[in-house]
Each structure stands twice: as structure tokens, then as C-alpha cells.
Amino acid sequence: MHAMIRRYRMGAGTIEELMRTVDRRFADRAQAALGILGYQAIALDERTVMTITLFATEEHLRAAEPAAERIREGLADFRVEALDADSGPVMVARGSAELADPVRPAP
User: What's the pTM value of the predicted model, to 2 decimals?
Assistant: First the structure.
């Protein structure tokens, strides 16, 4: 299993609007199309978001890069700027059944 951790800053809109857009337009489709094992988008503050994406293999992670760029382009209204990104093998992992239940932003 491999993880990609990214941090973004948004320049327009609200964090709630951004998260609703990610949830409605990208999260489910990207997971199905790219073979994502898990995805979390975390609001660090009112302008900064961290995402953690889990893939079965490093090859899956690398193959998802073009789609990640298209998603960023699809969020252009929010002026999303990539701050940093790191990836690596997952060395220890645990999960509960609750992880299988999607978390959605408030409407």
C-alpha cells in the first residue's frame, strides 16, 4: 500500500464550498476510476486543506497523477495552489468499519 499526502491553499471561496465540490464532483468518481483504497480531505484551517490518498501499489499512485492534475484544474474557481506533496509506502495501517462509511460536508 502507498500513500500520497498533499497540502493545498485556496485563494477564493470558502472551505465548506470547496469540500462540497470535491465531495459531489470528484471523490466517488476518482475512487472508482483510479482504484483508490481510501481518500480523506482535511480542513487544516479556513484556507488550507490536506488530502491523504491510499493506493494498493506505487504504480497505482503514479498512474493517478494526471487525474489529480485534472481535479486541481476542475477546482480553478477556488484558486487552489499545491503547497507540497509527499508519498511513500504505508508501513503500519489499521482501520475500523467506520472508515468504510463516507464522510460528507454539511449541505
Answer: 0.87
